[in-house]
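Task card 7
Instruction: Convert sequence to structure tokens.
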Amino acid sequence: MPTPEDAPSAVISQKILASALDSAGIEGWTQSVFEKACLANDVTPSEVAYAFPDGIRSLVPAYFQGLRGEVRSGLEQIPLSEMRVRDKISTGVELWLNEMSKSYPASVKALDWATIRPTGPCSMPEIIWGVADTLWTGIGDTSFGFTYYSKRTTLSAVITSTLAVWRNTGGDEAEWKPFLARRIEDVMTFEKFKAKVKLPEIALPF
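Output:
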């Protein structure tokens, strides 16, 4: 049965992204890189417009969307039912950063592109929140309301700090993985503390 990834526009998008990665890692995600990637795949202007409606402004969002797709696929291959929640989340973050590391220079340039466009179609907060939501949803979270947002906000903070270490160490797994483990341990310690704290009962005057 055909999937969205099999659609003609998705196939074209994947080809153009693959062709752009090496150049983007050197030059950045520029109009020139976009045009060269399109030429390399011999696609028509109408095909490009369909795959990337906003041109270069669609390219980086598509890159991050593709990474989230790989993470979803990766989580589906893992026996999550046999793991603790903390281990599921840790594994998900690792999957994402490992995908980012496959094209480290291009990933860094993509982060730079998003950072200087705080109100654009792919801002850093949107990227981080998207990853956090992908991970929680991917491990089967069905929460809603305050709990839904609280989980994703907390994980977003963990991802943001770990991403900084990933970037500053050139994607060195020996550096960012232990940092990630410590951050998740900190969160779990705090959550355990909250669970033990009982607010005093206050007699209301009505």
